[in-house]
Amino acid sequence: MKPVVVENIVKVYKQKRNVIEALKGVSFAVEKGEIFGIIGPDGAGKTSLFRILTTLLIAASGKATVDGFDVVKDFKQIRNRVGYMPGRFSLYQDLTVEENLEFFATIFGTTIQKNYHLIKDIYQQIEPFKTRRAGQLSGGMKQKLALCCSLIHKPSVLFLDEPTTGVDAVSRKEFWEMLHRLKEDGITILVSTPYMDEAGLCDRVALIQKGEMLSINTPAGITNEFKKPLWAVRANEMHQLLMALKEDPGVESCFPFGQQHHVVFKQPGNDRQRLETVMNTGQYTNPEIRSIRPNIEDCFMALMKQ
Amino acid sequence: MITTPVAREKVYTMSQFYIFVKKECLHIWRDRRTLFILVWMPIVQIILYGFALTNEVKNSRIAILDQSKDDATTAISNEIAASRYFNLVKNLHSYRDIDATFKQGLIRMAIVFPRNFQYDLLHSNRAQVQIIADASDPNTANTLTNYATAIINDYQLSLNNNEQLPYTIKTQLRMLYNPELKGAYNFVPGVMALVLMLVCAMMTSMAIVKEKEMGTMEVILVSPLRPFWIIIAKTIPYLLVSVLNIACILLLSVFVLGVPITGNLGLLIWESVLFTVTSLSIGILISNGAKTQQAAMFTSMMSLFLPTLLFSGFLFPVENMPVALQVISNVVPAKWYYIIVKSVMIKGLGFFAVWKETLILVGMTLILLFISISKFKIRLA
Q1: Of A109, A158, B144, B310, whose CA is between 20 and 30 Å from B45?
Q2: How large is the ipTM?
Q3: CB proximity list for A14: less than 8 A, separation 6 or greater
């Protein structure tokens, strides 16, 4: 029995005359003890999917089970056993760190002491502030507290909706390290994120865009799907270079990626020569051309174009 | 291979319920603004309605035009000036002054004694006095002229003290339940209805909607807590606050306003708890529909505060309203509670005098509770 099975889930929102299809028939399954990442930009349908799986919303059609329980029919069973951390900070801001944790432990019929080992690594970092009100914590500490609260009852499946959004780079790194430790405790984790660079930290990822799954694979599997050679170019005149490459009829795609542009040709073959030609005609200073391995974001961009 | 999922044992323990109530109390305690409203609203309302916003006529400013200046007019003038209803602010000298003084808004009533008042009284057995009142407020004008007439009649009786008049009818007045005609007797039950309505319905609906607004509802729904217990746990602290408010209002009314509790205190408190539960269920009902705290507050104000003020009979007698409004007033729970409190607290009646009203309230409460709990959203949309 797989902890999470989603079959052809469709979710529709009606706003006056507009009908918005947030999820257009999504299917996937999560293995036990896996970190499964749902990766996609804002508005891709990640939160809708999480709310359907945590029994908070009902899908227009399709079927989903969590731990073998149907998300509509057996919602009470699911609510007893999963952990859920919504995208928006949703703890009691006027209660202290300790009071929040105690509250969530108690309503799940457990105590902090009983499952302290689960949250120990995370909670130790915020323990110095345990008498501080949750509303006065920094962004990263809020997320750590929220994670503790969703973990304290040792859930069988943990749903984390964008846990690292708005969190600084160091805290994000720590957060992912914690998820890996939880994985070792046998907890299945479903995590969504808009950050492509976090995909590599998951066991498997599903790329989602406008309510559709683009690809479901291991991070390496997804980058292996990228067949064409990928090039990174840079010069002092980055903007002019981008424009020139985008106008080139032979170029399939060109995206700015931090300090460089990633370029793919429609018909690969003597790519480097063609790039050098562009560089020479534009008379760019300090030109650089490198062949690189694609990352998840490259794949996402390529899949989006199809 | 199909494996049947194993259901985790449901855990409903008192500790779950207790921690929720404790959390709710912490919310109230830490939100100083809410706490302030909860504690001070009943006190301020009682003091306001008891002293400031009273419809009793006291210290009304009057003027006297005395063209006779004899023993009789002086005696009557002194009586009037000494009365607690009147405050003599001006002695006028001519008819023209009367109009001018009214126009300046200085006085609400003027008394005019003609020339030779005492002479006429003693010699022709007939004297006239004119009372002019500002009737832009008809009730007050009526009351003032009645008071003045009564004082003049008293003086007339004292003149005839030694003589036996033939054929006299003496009216004996007895003001039941409120011999001193204090406005507070009317206001205390009304304020109790208002305060309980506001504290329970408005505060509860806002507290529930706050969980939706802050996103915490999302988290507690995905937990073993059942919606029914969430509602009950959220309302318990407000029930306790209401009982404190009732105690506070009763103490104030007895010791500050001098309105005694003539009936059974236990009955009064139980009826109040019943009305509190009615208000709480209205609060839950409002919270089902409202998305923001502001919406909840506005709905409570419009659907509770105004009807309670208008239709409970506490400001305006329901019997004087058009039939349509009288029918509407029947669905306002505060009306029935107001009748109960008046009967028990002021008139000192027992349960058998108010069983009908109590039954109506119980019925309303059950219906409201049923609707609000069955309509409570167990999901987000």
Answers
A1: B144
A2: 0.86
A3: A20
